[in-house]
Predict the structure.
Amino acid sequence: MEQLFARMSLAAKRALRDPLLSRAEQIYHARRFNRELRQRELQLGATTLQSWPAYMDLSVAGKCNLRCEMCGLTHGDPTHPNWTFAEVERFSAYYPYLDTVNPTGAGEPMLVKELPAMLELFKRHGNAVGFYTNGTLLTSEKIDLLIRLGIDNINISFDGATRETFERIRHPAKFDRVLANIRNLIKRRRELGAKQPAVRLAMVLMNDNKHELPALIQLAAELGVEGVFTMFVSDRMPLQMPQKDPIGTNACLREATAVAQKLGLHFYSPGLLPETSDSASAPVTALLHSGLICTHPWMQLLVWNNGDVSPCCRIQGKLDGHDFGNANTTSPELLWNSPGFVHLRQRIAANDAPQVCQTCPLRTAKAN
Ligand SMILES: C[S@@+](CC[C@H](N)C(=O)[O-])C[C@H]1O[C@@H](n2cnc3c(N)ncnc32)[C@H](O)[C@@H]1O
Ligand code: SF4
């Protein structure tokens, strides 16, 4: 099997150099071979991979102009320098194989000076590009640039349907300013005859704002954006976690789903919470035994602003003493099979997912 994997990996590499193919065709075939290889590795539970990841999150931003209520930056997490183009370029071996790149991070990407050159690099490799922004810095000039570069998705963080809630959470952003920027983005996209970027409002659901979700969906429809994306606040805000009020949260999610259906808007919901203590205490084993496991460690590489890598935002540094590695000290190509990655894949493949995976709200991806 190892030999077959090696041959498929070689085929992907060769496609990228085939002189008879255009660049677009080279990339198309390399990704196709890589996707097939990954599928086989996943089915067989391979833990040292010859396939490359499909998704990459690059924390290009390390600073922000806001201090939102729930954000790590407000709770004492250190800021970091924004990345330079060279820091993005060091991952060039990955780009030909990636489906999607998300250049965001723990800060505001629109503050990153060399963001346009970075976006251009991703688009040159045919990557779909989507990122999060607080929307405060979307000037007409920047909007036109994002449309011209063909950026695929922009998620604009918007945590309340009313001025009062929005400005309390997203301090010191102005509700009217961000709304005007979103309207301008939709207007310029129409004027330029562009279909992209698709725009979504992104709401972090907390117990103090979740009741505004149906109204936010209404607002999104009025603005003409494509959808609303919601995620639960992390355990950084224990009292605000929707998991503490499953019945109230589910009522908001159900109402929001109905409003979105009526308005024909995409609504990306985190999924209903278990409402009884029985189902709340047994979710993971049930999921693992039913074959529903997390495939992030086979699919996704996240690079933190300080160069640390991991499969997702819940893990950083080491797991059981096994290091995921750092791009400043290790060749980026080697990080995908670092001891931390291999160890995590081994635990998940052995149906022994670590605690951090067992409590993850995203653990719904199917293995095949
Ligand atoms: C860290 S921000 C960076 C991008 C940009 N500055 C923004 O606000 O969209 C990325 C996303 O994480 C969300 N976020 C911030 N703190 C969070 C938390 N404690 N739990 C869950 N999501 C959070 C933000 O609202 C935003 O949608
Ligand atoms: S705008 Fe984004 S990065 Fe900045 S403080 Fe708010 S959530 Fe954090």
In short: The CA atoms of residues 12 and 30 lie 4 Å apart. Residues 64, 70-71, 104, 106, 108, 132-134, 157, 202, 204, 231, 233-234, 236 surround S-adenosylmethionine (ligand 1) (CB under 6 Å). The first strand starts at residue 55 and ends at 61.
